[in-house]
Design a protein that fits this description.
two-stranded antiparallel ribbon
Length: about 220
Amino acid sequence: MKVGVLGSGDVGQTLARGFASRGHDVTIGSRDPEKVADFAKEAGIAAAAFDETAKFGELLVLATAFSGTKSAIDLAGAQNFSGKVVIDTTNPLKFEEGKLPSLAIGFSDSAGESVQRWLPDAKVVKAFNIVGHGYMVDPDIPGGPPTMFIAGNDAEAKKIVADILTAFGWQNEVIDIGAIEEARYLESLCMLWVHYAIRAGSTHARVQTAAGCAQLMVTAP
């Protein structure tokens, strides 16, 4: 497929490499494409502005900081997402001095639901947000990767994303937990491993912690 990745930070670069390594034609989008020109050349992909990236992609990935997601969508043009599968990787993190990160929205809303509202004609699927970027592609975890949960309103779009996850190495199980409203709980799961990682100083332990919770949720009666 032609894949457009909007966002050129760690998550965007990791997923852009992942799609390219599986033979997809990838463009990574940035507010300033020149900043990622060297990365794009090294990764064998294209770099472009958000609007060009959104027009290019048959499948689109939102990999921006959530605080900049609405701006990125506006720059990209909501019409360029219409009818397309959009993978939303964002978490609505809030940072306050002297405190652990928290969720800027939650309980009755989520980043995933916000993205679907901003892109009413797109097929938004929440995925990848429950692990750190270093584990998104070919996760190397003792015992194999944990369960990856996804959520969204379109069944066919979720099947496409599940197939992508399997190709990216999430071979144990990909579980569809329901409509996009379920993103509220996936974003809370992100906070679990973020807080643990900060306290423990271990990025590996945080994934194992998230994995354990996921498996308990799946197997609990």
